[in-house]
Amino acid sequence: MNQSKDLLLKSLRAALFEEKIDASKFVEADWKRIFNLSDIQTVSSLVLDGIGMLPHSVLQITFDKKMMLFAKMQRMEQINTLHRCVIVKIDKALKAEGIQAVFMKGQTVALRYPNPLHRTPGDIDFVVALKDFERTMAVMEKIGKVDHGLVHEHHGMAWVDGVTVEPHYKVHNYQCPSTDHAMQEMFASIFPSELSSADMDGYAVPVFPPTFESVFLISHMVNHVYEEGLGLRQVIDYAMFLSSCADKIDWLQHDEFLYRMRMQRAFRIFTCICVEYLGLKLPSQVEPFLYREKQWARKMIEDIMTVGNFGRGKYVFHHNGMNDAFHNYLWVLGRCYHLGFVCPSEARWWVVSKFTRFFWKLNKQK
Question: Among 47, 171, 178, 266, which has the minimal tally of Cβ within 10 Å of its Cβ?
Fold first, then answer.
């Protein structure tokens, strides 16, 4: 790992877990490269929090650049504040119609960050029962805008107060059929009777219970690995989750869920990255990592630092015709081959499902 990537991780460890930062390591830092990497990984405000602990004499960037970075941070805080308001608005509107939803990722994981407003926002994702999906989209149309023609394999698309919203009728799609079935059964076992809640500006937002959320976050990272690229933002989400919730997990049930999802190894690899590279203290319930697991974690973090969130550091998906589709497929194929060790069952099925899904979509367009 080169110097800029190493310094990026050091700044994140300082921001996330208050690890003392060695200013001497940053004397000859390539700040342009570090900030570019932070954008690729969608962790720019976190990096600013970390390097803000350095002496001004070490932080060799121009005043204009500093102002630009802080303006960007302020804009992120404003967007996150808006997202939180929209979540409350959506949940109230759904409850008024007797619809139970559960919110995931995004602002719900950000609540565990030292500064929740400094997690780079994405979309707002929530899940409802399949039987409630059509009514949910009708509610979305009352408070925002809906694209009824843009329904994916597990969610629809809407916009509320300018914020992109993905109402799910299924937690996620998993490529291995038995894994996909297992997740649906696990979700049914906790929804809606076993949900937890998170305080969002004084409002109780429904969220997953910790044991289920842990497995869901692991599975979400596995999906990113093979689809378009995993970024540090998702791994940090899991590091902050473990830091806050490890003692709330039912570890026997957690092991059972991981076994059913075939993601025991993925859990070990991602947790190892959180500990070895992000500064998370190893939870007492997790056994120390084996040499081989550390090697897998190193290979995975090197890919993360190169490829970035949604492949921003290396490959951008395009969707204009057969040629783009072919190159996209080759990209996924390569990732399944080189990173198949993370979750072998999903890697094998991605090769098949990506191919068949392309022709299914092609046929649907006719």
Answer: 178
